[in-house]
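Researcher: Please translate sequence to structure tokens.
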Amino acid sequence: MDFVTLAGLIIAFSSVFLANWLGGGDVVLLLNLPSAIIVIVGSIGATLIQSNIQESLRAFALVKWSLFPPVYDFNSARSSLNSLAHKARKFSLLALESDIEVLGNSFSSRALQMAIDGAEADSLSDRLHDDAVRLYDRRMKSVSFLESIGGYAPTLGIMGSVLGLIQAMANLDSPEALGHGIAVAFVSTLYGQGFANLVVFPIVKKLTGYIEKELLYHQLLIDGICGIALGKHPYRLELELDTYE
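Model: Translation complete:
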């Protein structure tokens, strides 16, 4: 689990409650279920309208990366590729048949299998690059979906405030109830801004970093496996891959 994300969320929300408490505000006023519903559920609903079920499911599945991020060990991958290069040079590409899963990555397993099956190095490189870019584009569509949720949230927060003010106006004959109603109404605006800027956008930024790192990791695998297919000397290949971090 990524405890940094968890700690960041706790600190962000705690700062809001702490500031409210230090300002003499009532903490209970910040806890409003109707405001949360119109902001969170409304934002997700609006985003679903502009998308499709497949993209939305991919996006929600990607959110788990914020707490359980993928691991891309560049050092381990370079070491494994170097071992494969030595083995292929000493025996042949066919000798790598038993090492298909050694990198522990479905992308690398498919790439290595294609190299063993005799795919031409140049066409193999082009094909794998296309696959990596398509995967990157698909991931970024999921990020755009999540970003749209953050874009709609502040507007839904304002709508919630307007709705709250309408209800508050119904109590004009009771100044105390009117004041309380107005205070609660503006909580929706706070929820909209908070949900977008303390939750959605930071998570989107973190996911984008992971996706870019995944693309770089796949580039490492492509260069390494294509280098093995070309019969490059292991030490030369090691030097070429050493720049990936």
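Researcher: Any highlights?
Model: DSSP finds nine helices and no strands in the chain.
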